[in-house]
Amino acid sequence: MKECPGVVDLVGIYGSVCTGDVHEHSDLDLLILINDPKGYALSKVFILDDAEVGYDIYCTNWEMLEDDANCGHAHISKLLDSDVLYVRDESVTERLESLKNQAREVLGSDKRFEVIAGIREELCKIYGRAFVAETIGQLRGWAAFMITLSLDAVMLWNGMYFKRGVKRTFEELEGLDVPDDFEKNVMKIVKAKNFIELGIALGTLFKSVMRFTERRTRKDAPTQESLAGTYEEMFSNWRNKMPEAAERGDAFASFMNLASLQYMFEEISAENAIPKFSVLEEFDATDLAKNAKIFDDALEDYRQEYVKLGMEPVRYVNVDEFVKAYLK
After folding, report:
1. Are 220 and 273 in contact (CB under 8 A)?
2. DSSP label at 220?
3. What is the C-alpha to C-alpha distance for residues 124 and 106, in angstroms, rounded to an integer?
4. For residue 233, what are the contacts with CB-CB under 8 A and spacing of at least 6?
5. 202 phi-psi bin (left φ>0, alpha ψ -120 to 50, beta other)
6. Of 207, 250, 284, 317, which sits most exposed with the smallest number of CB within 10 A?
């Protein structure tokens, strides 16, 4: 404070000293909150030989605490649990308390599910990167990242955050709602001896966490307004392309057209309570005529959703009839 007068807003302690996990080689976790970049001059990393303890005295700025208040991860004990030793003035206390309340609001409301949605997206990206790892070391690195994201997602799902160190991770999860065999699946990753074991373990963890954190919102019953035009669009976009692909022996076009129909079904069913359509389950690259029939059968099943609502697809005998109706 003497070297950088006016830049330190608050000093606090957190971590093992506050949680009671202190041992002979524990360091001291300090929250040194600065309001000016020159305050970083206070940072210091060093080792005490007599105790063989390493110390990392880092500075935190308000932007970092604001990020914590958004609960983008579940390690926000620095913000919520620090014991304050020094505070510059009342305005700092008020600002800090405001950020604490913001974090508590996220944890205690549906806002946390928005955060989890972002973590799910990041998990998908990291899982994809894991597939192109060239060494077991690289793969383990991505695996550790996936474990961290998974822990964050699960803890936030419960409206909670981690208060203690890594060694207490699974203790803190005890009694909470977690994916089936969560700890076991994490440890399979840790103990995997080779690429194959690690890849399988990663897939298991990924799928379980994604299923667990999938928030199922109540869907509205379909209405004429919500479905109107969807059958006609499916017919227009892909109906005649399926037999055409079969005639040409074009397996790629057959696959992509059927996949496009699947995407549209999923888009509609995301907001409407309609039956599930899975047209890709029986796709056959060696029987394109069969794929065309799969398309037609699914389209007819979907037409029944129109019928349930008392409507039919809009059809005209010919162009003249359409023009006459369109110009009315």
Report:
1. yes
2. B
3. 23
4. 264
5. alpha
6. 317
Q: Residue 33 has what pLDDT?
A: 87
Closest CA to 239 of 185, 193, 292: 292
pTM of the model: 0.80
Mean pLDDT on 91-99: 96
Decide if 157 contacts 116 (C-beta within 8 A): yes
97: pLDDT strictly greater than 90 = yes
d(CA 150, CA 255): 33
Which position has the token pair 């690690």? Answer: 198
Structure-block tokens of residue 326: 């369109």
Q: Average pLDDT of 249-268?
A: 97
Distance CA 259, CA 274 (A): 19
User: From residue 202, how far is each of 157, 166, 197, 253, 320 by CA, in Å?
Assistant: 20, 20, 9, 33, 60
Range with the lowest mean pLDDT among 43-47, 69-73, 274-278?
43-47
Cβ neighbours of residue 44 closer than 8 Å, sequence gap 6 or more:
55, 57
